[in-house]
């Protein structure tokens, strides 16, 4: 649900509300540089919060830059987590992939949905339905322990076990030289550093308005994107 602010027939600000079931995300809150400091960003955020509440949302989340964080704090958001950026500076070492990695199939779709809701704390069925066919899963004795959506956003990896998360990371990061993980995922961060990635100065702040979303950052081995989380 995108919105825009127009002044003298010119777009000077934009923002978007991304609705799930009883949760939502704000994304792409941008104000033209020459119009900053006039409360336009705060106006966009307040409007989108009201729109979310009208749609039955009890928890609104976002990823904040250092520039945007003060605006969100003023609107009532609080910090609930942080993400670390990493970049690969050396060649990825040759390594074998776990046998448990396999393409997804319809028999696993419901398990993926349940695992996604368990880790994210949100009902995101409408978002991920169209990506289930392209998913790669870590399967053990008929149970999905983790999944990777290569075509969704930045390629999220969610896993309830370390072996699943690291196995899926081995697949993804053999061909990707940038990574963003929650700071709480110590295992995933150490795995990347051990395999040629270097920690960058860049971080991002996760913030929430309203009720807390019960999520598990230690089980996120690659985030979905800056505009979704």
Automatic annotation (TrEMBL):
Taxonomic source organism: Olivibacter ginsenosidimutans
Pfam families: Acetyltransf_7 (PF13508)
Annotated protein name in UniProt: N-acetyltransferase domain-containing protein
Segments forming a coiled coil: none
Domain named N-acetyltransferase: residues: 1-98
Parts of the chain that traverse the membrane: none
Gene3D superfamilies, per the entry: 3.40.630.30, 3.40.630.90
Superkingdom of origin: Bacteria
């Amino acid at each position: 649900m995108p919105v825009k602010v127009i002044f003298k027939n010119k777009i000077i600000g934009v923002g978007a509300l991304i609705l799930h079931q009883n949760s939502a995300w704000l994304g792409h809150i941008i104000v033209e540089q020459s119009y900053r400091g006039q409360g336009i960003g705060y106006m966009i955020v307040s409007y989108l919060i009201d729109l979310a509440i009208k749609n039955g949302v009890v928890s609104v989340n976002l990823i904040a830059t250092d520039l945007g964080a003060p605006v969100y704090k003023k609107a009532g958001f609080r910090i609930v987590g942080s993400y670390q950026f990493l970049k690969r500076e050396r060649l990825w070492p040759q390594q074998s992939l776990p046998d448990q990695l396999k393409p997804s199939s319809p028999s696993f779709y419901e398990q993926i949905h349940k695992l996604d809701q368990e880790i994210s704390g949100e009902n995101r069925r409408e978002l991920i339905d169209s990506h289930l066919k392209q998913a790669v899963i870590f399967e053990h004795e008929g149970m999905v322990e983790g999944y990777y959506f290569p075509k969704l956003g930045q390629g999220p990896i969610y896993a309830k076990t370390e072996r699943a998360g690291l196995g899926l990371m081995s697949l993804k990061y053999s061909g990707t030289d940038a990574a963003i993980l929650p700071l709480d995922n110590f295992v995933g961060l150490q795995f990347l550093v051990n395999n040629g990635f270097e920690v960058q100065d860049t971080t991002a702040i996760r913030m929430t308005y309203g009720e807390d979303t019960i999520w598990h950052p230690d089980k996120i081995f690659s985030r979905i994107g800056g505009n979704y989380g």
